[in-house]
Amino acid sequence: MKVTAQPSADVLTLQLDGELDASSAILLDTELAKPDILNYRKVLVDCAKLTYISSAGLGVFISHLQRFQDANVKLVFYNMQEKVFNVFEILGLDALMTIVPTEAEATAA
Amino acid sequence: MLVLLLTAVLALVGLVQGYRSQPAGPAAAAAPAPRRTEIASLQRLTQIIQRGQTSAEIYRILLESAVQTVGADAAWLDITSGHAEADAPAAGALYHRLTPEQASQLRPYLLSHSQLNSETISNELPDGPVFTVSGAPIRSMAALPLRGIQHHYGTLFLLKQSSMGFDREDLGILQTFTSQAVLSIENLQLAATSLENQRTQEELKIASQVQESLIPKNLPTDNWFEISSHSLAAKEVGGDFYDFLHLPGRRLAVLIGDVSGKGVTAAFHMAQMKGIFHALMQENPLAKSERDKFPVPSKFMAQANAALTHCLEKSSFITSTLYIIDYEQGGFMFARAGHCHTLYYHAMREEVFYFDSTGLGLGIIRNDGYEKHIKNQFYDYSPGDVMIIYTDGIVEARGEGNTEYGEARLKAQLEASYYLEAEEIKEHILRDLNDFTRGYPIHDDQTLLVIKFKAAQPAP
User: Fold this and answer.
1) pLDDT at B151
2) What angle do CA B383, B386, B391 make, to 5 degrees?
3) In this structure, are B189 and B222 located in the same domain?
4) How many domains does chain B have?
5) Is B412 helix (H, G, I), strand (E, B) or coil?
6) In a mutagenesis test of the B interface, which of A21, A55, A85 is the best target, namely the one with the most B β-carbons within 10 Å?
């Protein structure tokens, strides 16, 4: 699992590469827990290369959801593979999180 | 633990005896009769282990014993952070008759003349203010590394005012001391690691015992359905649970769920869910209508979510589905809280499908907003219908090429076996799952329940 952060003016793009499981979840949590992440208007999560997400991986996003909402930071997922989207959908997270197909839609969201 | 310490002690006793009876190293070879003080010091080091004390104390005894035995005028012990023991100084030094400042002046010179990995004697130190301790010049020095198999624990420096202060015999004795100290420290660490592993093992044992005790031992029986269950706990993950409860009026509540996380924490939350299930599924005597006597599944989930809000860690959640099957009405009602979709065989339409329903897992939204995210679904069943209830450990089981078993393959198995008895359907699915995962480790708990509805039988 690799997490690459690309900051721009007021948008932070996180690219996830590999399998997000209990061990790699710590890596992502470190990235999302940074205090200055709340200074961005939007955090885009590029899931193109995310091949698997475990419940520990989902737990990381869930644990920061409220904090992002309270700080008015929009969390947007895009380029999600169908298999990964199914995991979000089964848990009902698609109703709570913004998941869009393309980068263009994510930027516009 | 006790065995380990005992082994360590026996090893040390052996070492002492070996030192007494036969030559061990250059010092013993040069000294035909071992000196009393050396043996006394060595015995003191050995006793530290027997009393089960700390590595900090071993370092202190090493320094004292070394100084005493060779008659050093000053000495210090540099301790590097080559080990991870909480009670030891992380990186520090012990001083004997010299100040830390004096030691730090001497250290660069002595280190440049000694090799970090081997014992060094320097019996002709030059003149100069650096080589003066407590007003007297220092002429001789011995430096000994504390080496373990993998770690370097520090360096022992001994100083004498006389020139030619240390000989090979001294070095041999000191070597015995340092290797004895390293052995003791490594034994302590070994004991600590073993204790830690033992704790983890113990924890896992408790967790699996709890999990085992939560799984119903007897499946409900009645003449209007057949039920068959399978549960397999992965080594460390744990978190699947299911339970049944007979409700008045020939109704049956079936709960299945999966707690994220593992070990004792997961087992604890499973126990909580079971408690919540039994507490909420009590008849409410104040209910105005028959319908309100027991919470409908969506209401149950909302109440469970509220109950879990304060005790579930922020990154944990629970997926669950509650079914209330009503035999008299010939139907069932269920709410899916983020749990795997129910697989169903409809006998009259001869069709296998997954129920398509939305619903959020428990512990994700921790306020009143949850109720908007959970729905009840109603369904009338016919005799011969089959319901497959399972956890993600089944559909996410890995096989060749790291592929997942998947919903499609599970569905195909029901299509091929729906006409069998519940027990045989379960066996059919498990056989196929085992074929698929053969040779691959099980990463998550696997739970599978098969319910087959039967034609009405007259009540006995």
Assistant:
1) 81
2) 155
3) no
4) 2
5) helix
6) A55
